[in-house]
Amino acid sequence: MLKWWQERVVYQIWPRSFQDSNGDGIGDLQGIISRLDELKDLGVGIIWLSPIYPSPNVDYGYDISDYKAINPEFGTMEDFHQLLAEAEKRDIKIVMDLVINHTSDQHPWFQQSRDRTSPYRDYYIWRPGRGRKPPNNWGSFFGGPAWTYDEQSGEYYLHLFAKNQPDLNYRNPRVLEEVKEVLRFWLDKGVAGFRCDVINIIWKSSLANGKWRPALKGLEHYLAQEGCHRILRELRREVLDSYDCFTVGETVFITTKMANEFLRSRELDMVFSFEHMAADELLLKWFKTKFKPERLARALTKWQLEVPWNANYLENHDQPRSVSRFGDEGEFWEQSAKLLAVLLLTLKGTPFIYQGQEIGMTNFDFTGMDQIKDIESHNVYRLAKRLGFPASARWKLIKASSRDNARTPVQWNAGPNAGFTTGTPWIGVNSNYKRINLEAQLHDPHSVRSFYKRLIALRASSDILKAGAFEAVQISRSLFVYRRKMDGNSLLVLLNFSKEEAAAPYRGEVVLSNYERPSYTGRLQPYEAVVLQE
Ligand code: ISL
Ligand code: CA
């Protein structure tokens, strides 16, 4: 028997860029409410909201200054209640983002923590330096050291992300008590679960120096430690078990073995893997290399075979757009966007669609750093400059990998600002919005969006697609063929990740094809995806 969060499809909203309702250029809760009908029509059963809590926006919501309130830029608690009620009317569940590795440095806990005598001192990780040097050699995810010196305190504090995101200290039991209250606060309102931000790095086993790594020195001291498992078990037992909800962990650097350790006794219900996201990377996400479909297929296959239930995704607010990365922005834009849809919705697991993915939105077309808002991009740009990268090379890194690729406003129609706002959008709208927008696709039966809708419905009606076993059939340079099977029935999925035709001598009745072909004859068109009933 599948659980409801295994049956349904999740849609991720990054609220700031979803839909503005009041002309201030910033997406908001009323904007989301106004689009629920479209999401229902698409077949969405769960919405995951990226953080909507008050935040100074150094990391756009992932730096939280109050866990129990709504960011006034997005609306009020009343708006949130209305969103829950309107979603429920449409049988859509709402999942919140839970960011508990760190808070904002503007959070009152941290403000008080700067005073050495405050009871909040131990909410964070403070240490004296080693002479003029930080307490250890750890590096932060956003580049630079993981420690910042605070004059007022005369000590350093740990931050695995920006210096405005101090890490919480889970050795202090009061911190976990606060977190439990936060969970109950939202669960009692009716939210259906949490996406848990960098949840596998919340426990630091030691603060010793890290061994050499190309990035993130120190990782071995905080990645998936026993203390983290203990905390998750406690949250499960004392809080989550009393509600009908699920959790999905954002679990950086996770292996399938680690995943199973989180899933085994339901410390988490699902985890996001990052391995398939490295299919076009060399070592670091900033060094993009030619995309190799084979690497994508192998990573996905490994996870399909080794982990019983996956959280499948090709995009989110941290990743470039999938059609630009793994497909083709040019001649085969439409076919490749549809091919990626087939991949996402025919793997075993819960599919996560990121806003705009369902209409094939592409990477941004910004021309300079002044248009980039993301702190990570600015940090890396500066770092690359210090390392002597020429300006053109630095810009190339940003273009290929910046998180702002996925953060441009959703393209609703061909009107001003793509229908996102009547004011000035907080970040640039991609200039391709006249060609790529929801309105143009909504009633076109052959659009990318209609194809997503068909696939979501197909998955909903197919026990094989939802629960059938996965079997890899062929992984070659540009072909990925796999089977889903159950009780002697099977579906074969054929994907051609290339601009060339390809021979793929398999047989079956066509269930679905992005070329709308009535029958299959053993050859795939460029970027063709076919599902066959065997
Ligand atoms: O973005 C990344 C790669 O581009 C990752 O290194 C990312 O920082 C990591 O996956 C953690 O992401 C999450 O936590 C961050 C936040 O900035 C991200 O938006 C969030 O998804 C800190 O809260
Ligand atoms: Ca607004």
Task: Please tell me about this protein's structure.
The relative contact order is 0.10. An eight-stranded parallel β-sheet has the order 9-8-7-3-2-1-13-12. The radius of gyration is 23 Å and the shape is globular. Strand 14 and strand 15 (479-486) form a beta hairpin. 29% of the residues lie in helices and 16% in strands. The chain is α/β, with parallel strands linked by helices and 534 residues long. The protein folds into three domains: 7-101 and 173-456, Alpha-Beta Barrel (TIM Barrel), CATH 3.20.20; 108-158, Oligo-1,6-glucosidase, Domain 2 (Oligo-1,6-glucosidase, domain 2, Alpha-Beta Complex); 468-533, Golgi alpha-mannosidase II (Immunoglobulin-like, Sandwich). The protein binds 6-O-alpha-D-glucopyranosyl-D-fructose and calcium ion. 6-O-alpha-D-glucopyranosyl-D-fructose binds at residues 59, 62, 99, 141, 161, 197-198, 250, 252, 285, 317-318, 403.
Briefly characterize the structure:
The chain has helices at residues 4-7, 29-34, 36-42, 77-89, 108-113, 173-189, 226-238, 256-263, 293-306, 322-326, 333-346, 375-386, 391-401, 438-442, 448-461, 463-467; strands at residues 10-13, 46-49, 93-98, 126-127, 147-150, 155-158, 193-196, 246-250, 270-272, 281-282, 284-288, 311-313, 350-354, 469-475, 479-486, 489-496, 502-503, 509-513, 523-524, 529-533. With 534 residues, the protein is an alpha/beta fold. A hairpin with a 3-residue loop joins strand 14 (469-475) and strand 15 (479-486).
